[in-house]
Amino acid sequence: MEYVISFIIGVISLIKFTYAQNGKVIKLPTPSFKSSISIEEALLYRRSKRFYKDLPLTTQELSQILWASQGISDSDYKFRTCPSAGALYPLEVYISILKVEGIESGIYKYTPEKHEIIQLYKNHKRDELYEASLKQEWVKWAPVVLIICASFYKTKARYGERGIRYIYIETGHCAQNIYLQCVSLGLGTVAVGAFDDDEISKILNLPKFEIPTYLMPIGKI
Predict the structure, then answer these.
(1) What pLDDT score was predicted for residue 1?
(2) Which positions fall inside the Nitroreductase domain (predicted)?
């Protein structure tokens, strides 16, 4: 019963949050499904990179990264690029954009079904994210920072407390996809787990039961 109540409250909270999203919508370029680098090479060269050139990402690069993170890989069943317990897909991807060609800086949210981003805030809030992530410089200056969050009620409603484990496993799948895609694009990233959950939630004004799980700064190396 507890999980059912949590599910209902979570849905109500998510609906309220969805109605609050009335910012600019940007349709992303179609991602590529082929690469000049093999999966074996991407695994070989995958490293955590914390320092980036002062250059913007392209919209195509952003599109490719977001597709790798949570994009739709099966149009019939709406399966995504990451495995998910029960195909519930609790992860949500937010983007703090500092420098992307042709896109205004700010905070955005990725919509996998339409492969688009919606602007939530015109302020990229990078100073606040920097403070909330224990003053890690790469969070402050990267052209793009992905903030991976999870709607815990989705998975806990079906799997109970074990759903918490499944969500963190899924976050790892998502992060590895981003790592390998960055290698393929000649970009660098690092998975950041050291941050104040409550502060990140306040900065993004996250709906109830949605919790940040990872930050991933991304830039050219």
Answers:
(1) 52
(2) 45-220
Q: Which string of DSSP letters, residue by residue, matches the chain?
A: -HHHHHHHHHHHHHHHHHHH--S-EEEPPPPPS--SS-HHHHHHH--------S-PBPHHHHHHHHHHHH-EEETTTTEESS--GGG---EEEEEEESSBTTB-SEEEEEETTTTEEEEEESS--HHHHHHHTTS-HHHHH-SEEEEEEEEHHHHHHHHTTHHHHHHHHHHHHHHHHHHHHHHHHTEEE--B--S-HHHHHHHHTPPTTEEEEEEEEEEE-
- Averages of pLDDT over each 10 residues, the chain, 221 residues: 50 46 89 96 98 98 98 95 98 98 98 98 98 98 98 96 98 98 98 98 95 98 97
Within 10 angstroms of residue 126's Cβ, the number of other Cβ atoms is 19
Q: How many CB atoms lie within 10 A of CB 40?
A: 8
Domain count, the chain: 1
Rg (CA), the chain: 17
Domain enclosing residue 124, as ranges: 2-220
Q: Which CATH number goes with the domain that contains 207?
A: 3.40.109.10
